[in-house]
Queue: 4 jobs
Job 1
Amino acid sequence: MTQLQIELDGVDKHYGAYHALKGIDLAIPKGTFVALVGPSGCGKSTLLRTIAGLEKVSGGALRIAGANMTGTPPRKRDLAMVFQSYALYPHKTVRQNLTYSLRLKGIPRAEADRKAEEVARITGLEALLERYPRELSGGQRQRVAMGRAIVRNPKAFLFDEPLSNLDAALRVQMRAEVRRLHDRLGATSVYVTHDQVEAMTMADHVVVLRAGRIEQQGAPMELYDRPANQFVAGFIGSPATNFVPGRVTADGHAVHLDLPGAPCLAISGATPGRPVTAGLRPEHLQPCDPGTPGALALPVAVVEATGSQSFLVTDTDPALTICLAGRSPVPPGGTLSVTIDPGQVMLFDADSGDALRP
Amino acid sequence: MDRLKGNALMLAGILLAAIYLFPLYWMYVTALKSGTEIMAYPPSFWPEDPTPIFGEVWTRLQMASYLKNSVLIAGGTTVLVVLFGTGCAYAMSRVKSVWIDVALFAVLMMQVLPSSLMVTPIFVFFNQIGLMDWPRGAVILAQAAKMLPLYIVLTRAAFLQVPAELEEAALVDGNSRVGAFLTIMVPLARNGILVTGVLVFLQSFGEYVYARSMIGTRELQPATVGLQSFMGPNSSDWSGVMSYAAIYVTPVLAIFVLLQRRIVSGLTSGALK
């Protein structure tokens, strides 16, 4: 069994009457890249700050590399953090920013300088060592923030939405770069983001949070294929999953969707007669020729073409999004026939939202 | 039309500044006049025969001792205020609570009370605990108490501008709370601290009420009290008094002019951003 680098046991956090974290259990093995993802206000940043020691836990225990660190101040935890605003020290040069933590540890100036130069080479900052943060571009500042974390060789890296201030193209580039650095250093990383694409593409293990609770955690594709509830199904995947109300037939072997002209889907395993919510991913609705048995004819209201993909929004209640490769075969106002593979339909309890399929 | 309006406003500005600066001008001019010319009517606006007597006044009125005491009191007050006020201002900028607002209000209230009102209870209290044996120290303490509110309020604004994330980054980087305060927060609030410190120094340099009431010995009195002792109904040495005032005020003016850009930006930075 691999060594656990960060462990949280029933961590609670209260701000006065507000319950920000509710019994968080999380075990992060050494060398894993974990993403904490969720809508704003879900507690993901609070959780990260709790791990860093910037917030005191109200209950539960936190262990780092096996040692109990529940009440330890941040400076004794040996974790490095990359902030959303980068938090570079404005009155220090890049070199001084990189060596600040080393000098605090009592490492001699010459050795600290050597380490800073090595990290500058890895992150491509060699030419900028004597500059001040205000003289750098957004991407360069981001690299300094990364470098400042790397130079310490910490027990784990904590990232608080580090890419959200970059423009879209740079963000995609840095995404790959962060992951490459993680692999190269054999590091343990905890990465907070509100962008599920970032979480899915970068992480080994994704933790979905909502209102201070872990909704589900697991490998990215596990969350995509088998979401534990309707919230996770809606949050993971882009564009978002379509949810259609339906009802299990009396014999319990099929589900009838609440859409005009919708076929019965042969799905078993649910309680007969129960109201359910079906989750249909936009990319799982397959266009077909009109008249195909079991096809569903949908009036198309909007077509959004990106070139490689087209997103169609239907004029139904609820509106469905359909994701097609290439160009749309029908213009807005036309009718598109699609088939639904029952094996790809996700079923949720209409009341609790919990997943119904094994 | 707009240009005319601009010119008119400019003229009004110059006129107002002239009225405001007239006493300063009169001080310098009178210092250079002879005794009869000072009393002449109509008054002359420029001395006929400028005779600077600064050197003579410096020794005759024993200004070295007065100015030394002024610098000592102003310096001591500034050191005390910066030492105690900086930490307080930082704490009040970081803790968010109703009680901080209450404390700020109380601090500002103290600023409102005039020295002439406070001096009697302070005198009685200092006398009881034996502080009056060190009269200059007593003035420093009283003046520091008077200046602390202003310093705290203005420096707190400087600290509020430093993002909390920088301090958190320092904590995660392995620094203690005190270390982060000294190596990150104080250097970044440096401008505000400097400017407010200079203001405190200048204000204390001109302090009169406490020194007048608490310091009896001439050798320990600051320049403000000394100046007053040369003025009175029977005083005739107007050029001497004005030379004294000029010597006293010119360094203050010089500091202010040299630092005016920083002082103004330091005072408004909290409000504008």
Job 2
Amino acid sequence: MDSVTSDARTSQGADARTPLGAQADNGLKIVVVGGFGVGKTTLVRSVSEIRPLNTEETMTQAGAAVDDISEVRGKSATTVAFDFGRITLDARNVLYLFGAPGQERFWFLWDRLFSGTLGAVVLVDTRRIDDSWYAIDRLEHHGTPFIVACNDFGGSAHTPAQIREALDLDPKVPLLDCDARSRESSKRVLITLVEHLKTLYAAESALTTPELAL
Amino acid sequence: MSRPGRDDAPDRLYTLTGGRSRSAPDTPFDLVTLVVAECDPAVGMQSEHAAILRLCERPTAVVEIAAVLKLPVSITRILLSDLLAAGRVSARHPQKAALPDPDILEQVLVGLRNL
């Protein structure tokens, strides 16, 4: 199936809304990116305090205020749908998890989603590792920190070392197995990402002349 | 403005926003900007504006408003810009910095571990 709206189970139930606390004032973003059917929405659902919601963004050339807009010149408006969930972290901080399609033709959506994001989780189906190359390439291009989580579909014939090699992954990028259906496992994925961010930024702020990838 | 009985055809969306298809390029509304109503819905208000005000009695993210109203994010941003300009909502924008505040990261970590 072609469409990212394919997860019809996501619902819009306005009546079932769980409102945020009145003091909430800082929205944070983490993006979960991966190929179709890899379990992005499943992961979001297993940790979200609301049923994953679905919305769409209409992208036009002029709306794509990004550094490499030249790549889309000639394209007209495109609509892309994405899922998201929410985690209230404390009275003020609210984390939003976005499930973003990993295919090449959706890169312009990522630009919008990645803007200001803490970091990304690349969710990999080890039976279809190829689906992840493009996402990793774009994340590296954007300088968006990420980790790789291999969703366990049972019967992965690959060792972590093999997957790391197949993805040509920087040794510093954490890679872990997960079960996107499990709340604990999905929590572990998010914690691994944030711990990675802490390590990363502690190292960067220690540099006298930081070289930030733009 | 919007005629009842119309479906989600694009012309409906244009009608909602008075023909505008995008907000100013420097729109302050991030996907996770939290919007708070500063007044009650009033009679005669555009129905989408009224719906946003009801929704935002408590802080509500732009992306959630779009999902609940079943409107594209870009259209939602335009409606929010109008409400903001009229002083009917306030916006709590995400903290933006080149590097995340280590304190915030620690708070995220604590929050996740407590899930």
Job 3
Amino acid sequence: MNVVEFAEAQKGHYKIYPPLKKRKMDHLSIPFVKLLHGNETITNLERRWELYHQLHSHFHFKVDDIIANIETDLKSEIFDILFNRKDSKDKECFKTLFLLGSDSSTRIDLPKSTEDLLSVLIELTPKESPNVRMMLKRSMFKLHTAAESDQQNLSLKEEEQNQLDNDIQENKDVIDEADYQDFGDVSYDLTFVENFKKKYGKNINLVFNFKDVDSINFSTLDNFLILLKSALKNQHVDISLVFNINTNLSNIQKNLKQSTIRLLKKNYHKLDVSSNKGYKYGNRIFQSFLDTVDGKLNLSERFVQFILDKMANNTNHNLQLLTKILDYSLMTYFYENPFSVFIDPVNVEVLDDTYLKLLTSCPTFMFFIEGLLQQNAPSDEIMNLLTNKNKNLEEFFVDFLVRENPINGHAKFVAKYLEEELNITNYNLIELYKNLLNGKLEDYLKRWPKCKEQLMNLKFEPVDTIFQELFTLDNNSGLLTQALFPLYKSNIEDNLLNWERSLPSLNKESHASKEVMFERSVGPILSELFKLYREASANINLYDFYSAFRESVQKELLLPYIDCLRKQDEELDKILEPNSDTETVDKITLALFMQTIFEFEHMGFIKGQNSKNYDFVEKCIWRGI
Amino acid sequence: MSGLLPDVPYRDYQVNAIYSFLQHDPELTFSNIVLQGATGTGKTYIMKKFFEYNPEFISVWLHPIELVSWKPLMQAILRSTQQKLKQLYPDIEAQEYDPLDVEDPYQLLTLLESVLEEYSKVDMKSNLIIIFDGLDKLQDLDASVLFKLMKFLELLPDEYNIQLKFVYLIQDSSILDRYASCLLPTIVFPRYTVDEVTEILILTRTNDLINSDAFRNCILTQVIDNCDDDQFCKVAMNFITLIIQAFHPYTGNDIDTLNDLIDFKWDQYIEQITKENILDPVALYRSTSKIFISTEDNLGDDDNDEDVGADEENNGKEVFQTYELSTISKYLLIAAYICSYLEARYDSSVFSKKSNIKSGRISYGRRKKKEVNPRYLAPSIFSLERLFAVFQAIYPVEFKTESGTLSSLREDKLIKANMEVFQNLAELHSLKLVATAVTKNIDFLSPKVKWKVNVPWEIINEISESVKFDLGLYFSNLHD
């Protein structure tokens, strides 16, 4: 048995990927379907697809950029805190940095080691820190390897110099070596740090990076910190501690001793790495989305509210979630809206009667016509608009197409104003956008006292643009909610109850075999049993359940199906050979019943039998609530 | 002030004792001496001073806290002895032994014997005093360590000219009780009283404080030229007394803690110093009284305070991020708490729509009052379905449509367990706020996995307050 096999055998669980039959695709490689009741031309479809692709990749390009920036921003910030800030305090204390919301993957860059200073990064994971002794040993070992490799680099350089230089240098080297031997013992404890200067002739800057601090035993950590404290008394040692915390500070604070906290507090910094606290990056992504859709697309209030709600519900992966929602909404928009093709005004050439007919039924357009009527506008003008005589409607539409969306523009303006004029950075662009939409911008801005005086400059009246509903991202059908945040159990339940809805219909397909037809007429056994399951009480007597199931099976449908199968399957035939029809049905139903019960167990509908009582299974629900 | 050692107040007896126990003649010196006293009672300080004023003693300091377990301790004994002797008598050609060879006490003994034998060439008999600073801080301390060390000296032959003597500095007196039968000479360092603490701190810290950069800057920026050094000293002394008076109930007579507090508060204190109030302690106290209210030895609150000041108006908005949990997470956690601490059989009466929460006996049916408040017990385990059921019952769903309209029929009346709920639950689990009954090889999909909540009442109360959920209501009338 090789190693891989052995490792495989030790696993507690396995993943099995069932071979997926590839669905026969249309010869068209575009997953979009023809809209306008199937009247959309292929070219328009392709344009829609291309346009969607352009926007999507553009948006993602920007998002990647922003996320990459987060990383670099963060690194430089950490570097700045750890190495560039010269603190005037000469007291013995650690330089402490708490990285909040960190997933411990942040790498820490070290400054290059110089003639008299060596910086060493020591990373400690919870697994490496079972107790103080191991922590100390590991960290000293890491320090030692770092020091040795540094030493080697140096001596290599020195050798190069030596070849050019004279003997004096060599002499010095000999002396150095003698020196090393004096303190040649390396025991992995703090004496190593203490003698470091003597041995390597350098000051050290130790950076301890505690990964996943929450999983390290706190009393161990506490003791280790106290231990490190005693290394501080050496003049040549600087110690920085970096804690990667993914819970919160108060958790740390509660678990360490007060005296340790005080020790850490003397020189400490906090940095939120999670990139979802504060709105900086979320704002940037949202802004780039607004830019991507060229200021043409609107976002409906409902949709923005949806984004806000969902982001509030998810604290750790905010940015990913935001990107996902925006992505999905963009996709559905292009998928379902035939007018999406006009996002690119160049495509206006394909505008024809099929589109125009739909245009006239737009609520905003109708509202506009009504307004015209009330103002007693000349009737032929209105008629021209409605019937597209002289291409009036077309021109009218194109006119609106090239207009910028005032809301997007103003959102950007306000954001810029807040940042540049008032130095406010803790605003939430998405929330601001929502308030713009419902005209409550002033209420939102009043939060900042500075803004109160500037309200006049930022004032904005939301206006209805004609045809805006054609270019609005919305969540009106709950599609996003369903697709992004599916309800597991109720979805399964619904589908089991209405299996006809979710299985592909067979009516048109003449080539379906007889077998499949029979199978379909019987229906999935799972959903048959599920109907019974719904009516049962929390504890199900298996035998009663089975009897009920047997009664509910439609024998007249089942029998021809079995006959059909028997002809193909000899083994099945053998088993059922000596039996009469009723016996056959009994046998088959029992087999099906058992199979289904097990499947229910795996689907999480019932709990398996407990050891005491095999007659009953329990529903996986709580007291029917 | 002690006559024997300068700069050591209130420790005459102890200093006298040290003088009498430690002699130049090895014959007259005890092999093992214990100095016992709580932290910050001056053990290390006095010993340092002692050797400073009596340089003829050869002393070696060991810090067991850095050595973690007994083996490095043994190695350290050999290494430091060897180093010290080599440093003192560079003329003597002695063989170097690798301290890492010391694997057990016996090896230490043999190696030490050979080291000491080589250095016996020195003329005079003298002591080599090894001080174990904080022996009880050794991580892997067990009862035998001190025994080993004590008896160790008896094994060393006494004809050598260099004699080892051990001095142990120990904080915890209970450790010494174990060795009561060994008749160790013990010098006890009692805690200082408030007055003594005050005087010591004033003595040690005043110069520090007025020489600190911050204070100098303050004087320069405020252009304070109406004071002389004595008056500066008075400011610092006054500050120290204020600190002690304010925080004494919290710190006790712990000099370390007080020192820390002085460090923390001094910068804040001098920010308020102006030309006018520097000579007026009362005015200065008035303007700085805030800093004497809290100890501020927590990490997070600095920012929060600023936030509250900056945007008090949108406080309501900020709460929903307290504890960095989302609303769903918070409700899940509350539900988990209820599941863990309320018995399942009352669920239906508490949470079903029919009986609203009533106080008193009606809501729970007829039963005896519980003898112990369940909150004081360990959390009991529950199954996930129950958690979701309770969660559904307590989670407030905002109705967007008016009740009675057709569209309100389309809205879900209750929150259903969707992706978000599961995500949040997973988050809570990885934050260790909820835990499973077994910790290894958890199969989260199995219905047999039992869960429990992992937060105490204080936190859950805080969380439930942040979402304006009166958790106390569910626990009222459970106990007296």
Job 4
Amino acid sequence: MDSILIQLLNGLDKGAAYALIALGLTLVFGTLGIVNFAHGAIFMLGAFCAVTFRKLLTLSEKVQDPTVTLFAAYKEVPYLKIWFGDTGLMIIDYAVPLSILFSIPIMILVGYVMERGLIRHFYKRPHADQILVTFGLAIVIQELIKAAFGANPIPQPPPDIVSGSANVGLWLGLGEALVYPWWRLMYLVFSAVMIFGVFSFLKYTTYGMVVRAGMWDRETVGLLGINIERRFTIVFALAAVVAGVAGVMYTPILPPDYHMGMDFLVLSFVVVVVGGMGSLGGAVAAGFLLGIVQSFASMNEIKDIFPGIDQIIIYLVAVVILLTRPRGLMGRAGVMED
Amino acid sequence: MSNSNKFSRRQALKFGAAGAAAMGAGPLIFTRNAWAQAFPNDPGSNANVILGFNVPQTGPYSDEGADELRAYMLAVKHLNGEGDGGMMNTFTPSSLKGNGILGKKVTYTTGDTQTKSDAARASAKRMIEKDGALMITGGSSSGVAVAVQGLCQEAGIIFMAGLTHSNDTTGKDKKRYGFRHFFNAYMSGAALGPVLEKEYGTERRAYHLTADYTWGWTQEESMRQFTEGMGWQTAAAVKTPVGAGDFSQYITPVLNSGADVLVLNHYGKDMINSLTQSIQFGLRDKQVNGKNFEIVVPLFSRLMAQGAGENIKGILGSTNWNWSLQDAGSQAFVKSFGAEYGFPPSMAAHTCYVQTLLYANACEMTGTFYPPEVIKALEGFSFDGMGNGKTEYRAEDHQCFKDVLVVRGNENPSSQFDLLEVVETTPRSQVEYDAKIFGGELGPYKV
């Protein structure tokens, strides 16, 4: 029972990351009709916002280390510690959650510049052109990050208070054996809040209602005198924020490197296709489904029967779903079928 | 005028002396470069000799690669007579003069292996064919070392392996042109086994997470050989991809496997991530089978300990060398490296520095760069003063034999670098084995 629950939690965690990226991808596709291969790069840019923010917080003065006698060694003492003592150290400790505030305006700007500067010129071009240009853009962003931060993963520890594990077993009355890392639980909760926030925005605000109407019939909404293009630009920026913030929060789970976006992008596209092109609910459901399936496939009992199954299970599930439901789990008729 | 055509006694002496000198030098002139036409990248009359430093500058082992490169640059400096000379002052028997190698100034070219065999081969090929490197050295991954060693054998270029710990490097994949100073997985198992028995007893169930390439396989094999030999059971052994980043899907099955020891056959950033995540999943706080759950890291380095931070405390492993050693060679190296870079060298840096000096010394001993002669000088060469005590390059498999250190993550470090505590120095005799057990053939001297 314990092992099933822990795999379930792990699957939900992975699924949450897939779902958040896929949600942004679907939003952009549903509103602008763009297949955005640069969306993974936005997730990666968010992660590097966290890296940059920590670098800023840990700008340091070099002080000679008297404990080393064989040669002159130096310790780096952050200015925040020099200026504010323990409060300064506490601010550094909370670098990852604080990075969310730092990343939001940056991701809005990135989304806006990306859409207005490049992607809008490809609205009426074939999907193949859109894929090519956004894929090229992703490579450019990747290489820029590689040039600025190097090619190696940069660890981002969570705050001390949530660096250990929570006794989930005790909460559920299953004994003390079942534990799960606090930060991963927080990521799960954070993802749920983000997904709920996006759906609420689209469903319960007038702005969201117009966007949804535009997703169904852009021309009619335009004929009503609404500047739908402008709203879609804002939706693009919103999708960038969702992916970027998801990237920030994922850094304590996976140390970010320049390639992390591409790693997630491929899986997220599978999620979008399985969920159904243009279906927000489908993207979220497929994200969690595939995350859980992948997690269970990594159990030793399963791998003993099907060695290596954890590496291919997502694609196998995708094949089965597309064979039985060609439009995906919640796909609409007519989307990408022209 | 009458004397102008006469052959004076003075002239006779002059010509005689010149003739004798010419006669004497003649054989040297003809033999000195007798091998000149026979080997690639012969520096000939060039003032410089080029060495190729092929290290991971990116990828999961890049921290080690960066430190290796620092050590190589320091070795070049010392060979050229600059700086304080480091271990050149303690190395015996030494033929090094501090004027380069055979009077030629040492220069170098570098490559990024990316911790990938194909990229490593490509950069080694470039250094040999384009840059004219006479010797290739580097590593930090056994997959890379085995691949580059094979290439060097084909090219007739000596390969002085850097950090490579797989049994295969000097076992089934050994090559005449390849030499390893670093210890191997078998030696780690042989050194760690008795300490694990003493610390954790004989009734344990171990779960192995293993990097899925040659080093991981042989590391797991050797650890299982020694732990099962003392009565431990193996609950499971799971392969993990190199550079996985998130190991949670491999760690969660450990929780309910009935194992009470996790053996992390991981290295570099993979080890930092897998260890950190194991601790996040509460493994070290667990009690299984009435015993405290333990984690073992068979191959340890200070760089990894630094990356893992608090998580490393109390964890046992083995290492090739540690900067805290008090022998004259280690102290000289630490002082020199520390003065240059502001922190002590890692074991990866140590082995690379030693390998560069050993190659240069072999050239000086034979008076030539001709690889077959340099190889013969290295085979069976015994030395001291390089930080590991008396060491020998065994001729049969080109593996160095020396004492092995068993270390533990330091609970009470005395400085920011004092991260590993030496628990035991396992004597060479305890980690030695028959060269035949891993198979393989060295191959020919001439290629």
